Amino acid sequence: MGGEDVARVFWDVVWKLDLPFGDPVTAPQYLLGRAASEDGLAAVFNGEGGDQLFGGWTSKPMISAEIYADLFGEDSREELYLRSYHRFYGREERLYTPEFRAQVGGPGQRRALLRPYLEDPSARTFLNRVRLADIYLKGMQNILPRAERMSNAWGLDVRVPLFDRALAEASFRLPPRLKLHGATEKYVLKLVLQKKLPREIVWRRKFGMSVPITDWALGPLAPLVDDLLGADSLRRRGLFQDGYVGQLRRGQNEAAETRRRRLGERLWTLAMLEAWLRVFVDGRGRAPARASGAAA
Does residue 21 surpass a pLDDT of 90? Predict the structure, then answer.
């Protein structure tokens, strides 16, 4: 599977998702669902949820910030969370047009979404508060619905055992040291699974599940990205500024950005939003007619 495969199914992915999910893993999930369906499967298992339930890598930036808080006048926990995970937080003035920025309001609205979880008194440890935010905002509103849509697109039943409610509730009763154990993530799962799997699998170094979206966006997907995010398209939509988006399309990462994948992730997020608007707003939810983005 490569960028060419994603380009061929892009518009069907947009249509079947029916919401503008900004994670590029959705297209590989769609292709995986097709392969499973062609093999005659009726159900698939999804292994996501371990990070949210048992303290994965996403918890580390927040834990580090909490330990070393206020050394350099850092902002609130909500601000730190958004700076750690939000792809465009702090870039609104460069990304949004003035008119759009006036409509969506300031960053305080986004911080307000996080505050109930990061300050929840029922979660007795800071790690649990971070996990609450992850479960409610990432798990329930991102991971689960996108997996369901990409599986259902092929008539598959998707099962996500790590998001079982009883298991989730039990995870909050475990002490933090069984989740993040030093630099070891999801420690309790490793203790359990070492009885079933070889040591080199259980204790191997963490490998992410990201796709090479920057290579795709600047390569096989570049014509699609240019159509969706070119200067003419941006001007017609009136949401984003070509100066910033054009820099991304030219492959110019931000000077302080060390993660090359972030460039592709930002392009994919914006491209999916524009594609969704063309299909579900401009095209009133009709199936896309052709790769140019015009709705039937």
Answer: yes
- CA 203/CA 193 separation, integer angstroms: 10
Angle between helices 261-276 and 242-249 (to 10 degrees): 120
First to last CA, the chain: 28
pLDDT at 150: 94
Residues sharing a CB contact under 8 Å with residue 230, sequence separation 6 or more, in sequence order? 249
Helix (H, G, I), strand (E, B) or coil at 91: coil
- Rounded to whole angstroms, the Cα distance separating 188 from 207 reads 18
The whole model's pTM is what?
Answer: 0.88
CA 296/CA 40 separation, integer angstroms: 31
**DSSP β-bridge partners for residue 181:** 184
Give the DSSP letter string of 209-246: ----HHHHHTTTTHHHHHHHHSHHHHHHH-SB-HHHHH
Give one DSSP letter per residue of 241-271, joined into a string. Answer: -HHHHHHHHTT---TT---THHHHHHHHHHH
By the 8 A CB rule, do 250 and 200 touch? no
Number of Cβ within a 10 Å radius of residue 103: 10
Q: DSSP code of 143?
A: I
Mean pLDDT value across residues 186-200? 92
Query: Per-residue confidence at 3, pLDDT binned at 50, 70, 90?
Result: very high
pLDDT at 209: 66
pLDDT in tens, 29-76: 999 999 999 999 999 998 888 888 888 877 877 887 777 766 555 577
> Residue 157 is inside which H or E element, if any?
strand 157-159
